[in-house]
Fold:
Amino acid sequence: MLDVKRLRADPNEIAQLLLIKGFTLDVPLYQRMEEQRRVLQQETEQLQAERNAKSKLIGQAKAQGQDIAPLLAQVGDLGERLESAKQKFAQVQAELQSFLQAIPNTPHDSVPAGKDEGDNVEMSQWGNLPAFNFAPQDHVDLTDQGAMDFDVAAKISGARFVVMHGQLARLHRALTQFMLDTHTQQHGYQEVYVPYIVNADSLYGTGQLPKFAHDQFKVESENEAYLISTAEVPVTNIYRNEIINIADLPIKHVCHTPCFRSEAGSYGRDTRGIIRQHQFEKVELVQLVHPSESWRALDELTSHAEAILKTLELPYRTVNLCGGDLGFAAAKTIDLEVWLPGQDQYREISSCSNYVDFQARRMQARYRDGPTAKPELVHTINGSGLAVGRTLVAVLENYQDGEGKIAVPDVLRGYMGNATHLELP
Structure:
């Protein structure tokens, strides 16, 4: 959520910044609501003060044995007026809160203007694109003998699910373990295990609710609960309503979870293969840092995700997302896009984002610089390190030899029983 003081001070400035994201802030409506809130708050406070003063006088008069009838007459309908003012104030507060919850984070100055992913700006490229002397196949054709089975998955669950068999399933697991080992042993992250079902407060805290309820899988239960769409949600919410000692910053967590997404806005897109599924796995990197360190932390976290691609020797590029493609809660996002020969294009494999204090304000995740210091909001940064399924796709397509064999990257062979090639059904 945006800083309300900042919004009150200059809503037109905020509106201009939000236009970069394609969001139109209704400034006149906001100003009317804010003025109504201010008037009702003053009225409520004045009536409350008047009632307190009259109650005190009545108490003193009773103690002195005086006739309190005149004072009671002065109070009259004061209680009803106060209760009515409180109800109106609460209603306006709720409407204003709902309005504020729908406002996205403002973009950083370095975010380029643009409407959609076609306007994103390439920042760098790494690695040489493979030069095959044959027409490269995509991951579906490479595994069409049953190693990757969509028909069985559809029978079990429906569309956009997959069943993997044998060494392909093992390679998927190997990639996960390799990522976790790298981030914990080389990059200084502490591994955490978290629930895969979260409450509505957690999704609100990281910005998935209320705006993106349609993207979530809701669980039928006594309480409002959802399957997680990313480990970002439960990991970041570890610190909801917490005050962190400044000496404990930065906090760096890595977490492997399945992720569940309804893909409500992507029907017809990426229906082939496992690029876009309802269930997939990610290794997520999350940092909570001092505000002065957040932009350095974004660069660091991005480099940690890049390290996985470099070690696997997978060509990729970094992309600065334009305003129109930037997420609701993000101030800036750098996408890593891996090269997929079977599609002859780069595809996103990680989004590394700085949310500055937007998520922290919704969660009230704060730090304190000393026992008597005022708590301040932390900044939150996260990104995939990496999306496991898409990394699997990249390995299959970049390491194919044209004769039906897939080489195992050197760094993964220890996780694969020293196998040099996949033995697929």
Summary: The radius of gyration is 27 Å. Residues 117-416 form a domain with the BirA Bifunctional Protein; domain 2 fold (CATH 3.30.930.10). The mean pLDDT is 94.
